[in-house]
Write a structure and sequence with these properties.
CATH superfamily of the largest domain: NAD(P)-binding Rossmann-like Domain
Largest sheet: 8 strands, mixed
Shape: globular
CATH topology of the largest domain: Rossmann fold
Number of domains: 3
Number of helices: 15
Distance between the termini: 59 Å
Strand order of the largest sheet: 3-2-1-4-5-6-7-8
CATH class of the largest domain: Alpha Beta
Number of strands: 13
Length: 435
């Protein structure tokens, strides 16, 4: 059975199913279609499905013409009907894995999606989980459910874990060019996984197990979280010492070995880096281990919005103004520059903290025209255009996300107070405060 499945991928006769058509799933759907495979996309959101059926993109970094071209060639179909899972030879599960209220893993999306697919699975399929999670998820949660349906993993159905590595808005890397880590539950599962990805990704990196692949993803993001936590802490030390941390980082970056620059900010954002470290910390406790480095970095990073608000309060005080009633304009509410992705954005936390303290808040973000419905936060706000009248009427402008579209010269020339959390302004300006 494994040889037949591998052969179908080699001949591009396999039908690929992508479950979850967000920032991970949609690029995968298009990549498989562009490589010549027929692809069926699954999502529970009918609005997304309807847009894709009309050939429209809902992600800024994916142009609509890529969708309409693939649809015109009849390479893609999208549906909310999970019963169609029986038609595909592969299922790639790309659903969210957020944190719960107490920073514990919330795998409800993974489990609920898998349970919804189970009645429609058949022999000869390969199933790949791409959602970031703790080591053991694939063999502890998915494999037993397959066994309960009388599937023999590695013989008549194949299970792999291959973590997503998307970087939305990064023009230097694409789904095709980013190497793909893949770990199979058995040797045959690994063969199936390599066949699944080997014909659409330039480099597939095999590892010995699904747990090794799960840990690989966590290491990548914990590495970033810990180093960002370090530089955020150093930012606060440098501030007290009246040293420009960006000048220091740029000078250190000239060392050609043994140093990689990381940059401070108003906090961590995106679906991976703020969340993934806590997945490993939670799992480590099962083994009697306390991940002190990881948790300390998380503590530092999650307090950054409060640090920024403190700088706003102090800077307004220096001008004889209170925060309560002050008009605050936040520039950028996406979690990083030049994207429309607001997942775990520290800008949203900033808005919430400022509102709680009585400030009148507004935001400007060319990529997020209306504040969307998201977990935990609710704002009846729409993006405002930046002009000299708006800037003059604002008591404080916070640069929270440094989109290229902003006119930073206009902001500097017209705003009375700027809190710069991204190091946009190099050199000293009387109305600019680094945070």
């Amino acid at each position: 059975m494994i040889d037949a499945l591998v052969g179908k991928f080699a001949q591009k006769e396999a039908v690929v199913g992508i479950v979850g058509l967000g920032y991970v799933g949609l690029p995968l759907l298009l990549r498989y279609a562009e490589a010549g495979f027929k692809v069926v996309g699954f999502d529970i959101d009918p609005e997304k499905v309807e847009k894709l059926q009309r050939g429209e993109s809902y992600l800024r970094h994916i142009p609509s013409h890529r969708i309409s071209e693939a649809a015109a060639d009849k390479r893609i179909e999208v549906t909310t009907d999970f019963a169609r899972a029986v038609e595909v030879d592969a299922l790639l599960i790309c659903v969210p894995t957020p944190l719960g209220k107490h920073q514990e893993p919330d795998l409800s999306f993974v489990v609920d999606t898998f349970e919804a697919l189970l009645p429609f699975l058949r022999k000869g399929q390969v199933i790949s989980l791409e959602s970031t999670t703790y080591p053991g998820t694939t063999d502890e949660l998915l494999r037993p459910r397959l066994a309960d349906r009388s599937f023999i993993v590695g013989e008549d159905i194949f299970l792999v874990y291959s973590p997503e590595r998307e970087d939305p808005g990064n023009p230097d890397f694409s789904t095709r060019t980013i190497p793909k880590v893949c770990g199979g539950d058995t040797e045959n599962c690994q063969k199936a996984g390599l066949a699944l990805y080997g014909h659409v990704i330039d480099q597939v990196v095999p590892v010995s197990s699904t747990r090794a692949a799960e840990m690989t993803k966590l290491l990548e993001n914990i590495y970033r979280a810990v180093n960002i936590g370090l530089v955020n802490e150093l930012k606060m030390v440098a501030d007290r010492m009246d040293i420009d941390i960006w000048e220091v980082i740029n000078a250190a970056a000239t060392k050609p070995f043994g140093y990689t620059p990381f940059y401070p900010g108003p906090g961590l954002g995106g679906h991976c880096i703020p969340i993934d470290p806590f997945y490993l910390s939670w799992k480590a406790r099962e083994y009697g281990l306390h991940t002190r480095f990881i948790e300390l970095a998380g503590e530092v990073n999650t307090t950054m919005p409060e640090w920024v608000v403190g700088k706003v309060v102090d800077s307004l005080n220096n001008q004889g103004k209170p925060l309560r009633g002050a008009r605050i304009l936040v520039l950028g509410i996406a979690y990083k520059k030049n994207v429309d992705d607001m997942r775990e954005s520290p800008s949203v936390v900033l808005l919430d903290l400022l509102r709680e303290k009585g400030a009148e808040v507004a935001y400007s973000d060319p990529h997020v025209p209306v504040f969307p419905k998201i977990r935990r936060f609710s704002f009846a706000l729409a993006s405002v255009a930046i002009n000299k009248e708006i800037l003059r009427a604002t008591d404080c402008v916070i640069i929270a996300t440094n989109h290229d579209d902003f006119d930073y010269d206009l902001v500097r020339n017209k705003a009375s107070l700027i809190i710069d959390t991204r190091g946009v302004y190099q050199g000293g300006f009387p109305n600019v405060v680094r945070a």
